[in-house]
Amino acid sequence: MSDYTKEEIVVLADPQALAAAAADQFVEIAQAAIEKNGRFSIALAGGSTPQGTYRLLAQSPRKTEVDWANVHIFWGDERFVPPHDPDNLWRMAQATFLDDLPIPAANVQPMPTVGLTPAAAAAQYAQTLTDFFAPGPIRFDLILLGMGDDGHTASLFPGQPALTATTPVTAVYNAPKPPPTRLTLTYTTINQAAHILFLVTGAAKATAVAQVLDRQSAMAAWPARGVAVVNGRLYWLLDQAAASYIRD
Ligand code: 6PG
Prior knowledge:
- The chain is α/β, with parallel strands linked by helices.
- Helices cover 28% and strands 17% of the residues.
């Protein structure tokens, strides 16, 4: 039995349909946030799954539907490698779509990975977030998340100390997915978001999807299970292959 209602689990035919649905959601949430508050804040996901969505956002019609000058880009996690490293998630997003969008440079705030320890970098990014959202709490309009076949999300991996961190951002040292050193938003930050969108495709993730949606599963074993919005909306966008083991 799942905690999530049917409305929150959206099954799309294939990765292309999922990318289009996610891009539509992004535009809708961005437009509403800018209309209401004059700005839209988003934490991006790494991995390969969101790349189709990112590419669509940099193309018509979506490119023309968002007031990019008021979009503020952050990251949900980062691999602790320099910006020029092919594994760096900021670099991936720049190359995939940010370079093609008229977002002011000051609005793009990657997690720092050079010239300081991972712990200091996590603290610095926490301050960046605190300053951006002040005087309010850290509350993203949208957080995009991927998930690994072990149920990890952002850089929250099974059984790791980061799962119980209560600072806004924390360092991760022994990630099973390389590179091992990372920075990640914690549940404390993720769960305050106004909207969370999981993007998950492929049969290899079907077991993890079923486990994460199962109320009986342990959060420490399936970290995506710990994502639960406090006062917002959470959606799972799945393709049919990833959704194939979900029970009613
Ligand atoms: C990263 C992310 C990680 C990612 C998942 C899914 O390392 O890129 O931090 O959480 O989102 O591992 O990745 P895929 O979309 O490539 O399967």
